[in-house]
Amino acid sequence: MNKQLLSWGLFMAALIGTTACEDHRDSPNAPFPERINFVSERLYPEGIAYSSRLAKFLVTSIPFGKIGTVDTDGRYEDLLTAPEFIAGIGMKVAGDRVFVCNSDQGRSVRSTTATARQTAELLVFNLTTRQLERRTDLDALLPAADPNFANDVTLAPDGTAYVTDSFSPVIYRVAPDGAASILVRDDVRFASPTFGLNGIVYHPNNFLIVANTGQGKLYKVDLQNGNAISEIVVSNTSPTPNSLPGDGLTLLNGDLYVVTGGTRVAQVRSTDNWQTATVVKYDTDVYTGATTSVAVNNQIYTLNARIGQNANDRDFSIQRFR
Asked: What are the SMP-30/Gluconolactonase/LRE-like region domain coordinates in residue numbering (predicted)?
């Protein structure tokens, strides 16, 4: 596979301190609908974010390798793409930039035998110019024979990005200057015979929470204690005790919202700094192939992506947690 790393630019270093926080924290306070329906042919949008500068949701696309926007009235528009962009998975917005995972599960119009299951990249686009500013290759950090799938990304306040790989048991670290490394690898806790690591969030107490979908577990990675990994034992789960097969993870007001099974969102709470946790509520019956969420206006909005399908769907939606 053709590997490259685009220059980040000196101006980016000057801006990173002010743009690293996820953009939903600066969102307007206008009322949003409980459900936003939108139409786009075969979009299958895996990732969602929100830009207060655009005053729109951003959604990715697995088949087409692009990012589009959805306003609160349900109007969808294509926003940006690039020849290198195969399939858009998880993403975060930070000021005028969007960080998006570029992968290939073999379902994109740009999939090739060379890139399928062998792509893990972090792309950074400028939302004003709509141009690709940086392309960081992550799969090159692993042996060529290892499968790769960059799934989700979270941002720390200093601009460091952390990316999960669903096919290899690693979390990548991308420094503010674009330098990539493996933060941690765990062949037991991060492994899975199916989809492994998935959603990831940065907690203000300087640790990561990550979901292992196949194991049905949440893990904590303590960034200030040698990246120590510990399982977060979650109680009050159903239908299986102590099992929460998480996809997207979103923090809001101290609680963790976990998209699970494509059909539910669980509100999870901890009283011991995420050594243990409990499900305090499930929101159900309004999710179809749901993937991940974003916090906007002190609410959780989840993307109904019809994930797992690869047909001719055109109707998608964004649902508020109830």
From this structure: 45-259
